[in-house]
Every structure is written in structure tokens, then in C-alpha cells.
Amino acid sequence: MNKDSAIVDAEIVDDPSTNEETTTEKRANEKSELSDRLLSADHWLRFVFMVLFAFVACVASYVVAVLIVIQFIFALVTGEGESRLRSFGGSLSTYLFQILQYLTYNSEEKPFPFKDWPESEDVDCDNQQG
Hints:
Blueprint: H1 3-12, H2 16-38, H3 41-78, H4 83-103
């Protein structure tokens, strides 16, 4: 064996003590990052908002149910739904969608009252079969 091949062989062999130190450092960094995330005020503040918005979504879903019944009664009596209730129902359903987007981490924007109440999309109900 010549001198050059001995040097190459020595470079290939890993020093186990170096690997242990690197692994220990990685674990310490991971624990530190986890600790930082667990103690992050931003995450806990978002959790508080999520609980509040989940409660609002539950209440709003009951309002939607009442709105559905009232619109049905209007349709039975007058032959068509009430336009102001339809407009409110549209904006309320958009609001519920915004809440669900926030709760499922699909949006970082907090819904009303942190931004404007959503506008109802004008849907042409006359052309829809139902």
C-alpha cells in the first residue's frame, strides 16, 4: 500500500465522535425550535382568535338556519324570496367562508370585525332552477 492510498482511506472513515456531536447539536436545535414555537405568543394569540371565531361560526350557522326557514316561508307566501334577506344571507355565507379559511390556516387575514363586513355577491336567482 502506498502512502497516497493510506491518506485517501483515512479521509473516508468517519469519526464517530464527530457524528455524535453533530447529532446532539441537531437535537438541541430542534428542541430549541420546538420550544420557541410552543412558547410563541403569535401562535397562542391565533389560538385565542380561532376559538372566538369558531364560536362566532357556530352562532352564524344558526342564524343561517333561521334565515333559510324565513326565506322558505317568504317563497311560499309571496312566490319568491325576500331580496334583503337574500343579500344578507349572501354576505353572511361569505363571512362564514372567511372564518373557515382563517380556522383552517388557508388565510392569515382575520375576518370581520378586523376587516370590513363582506359584500353580498349579486346572484341572478331568476335564472336558477329550484
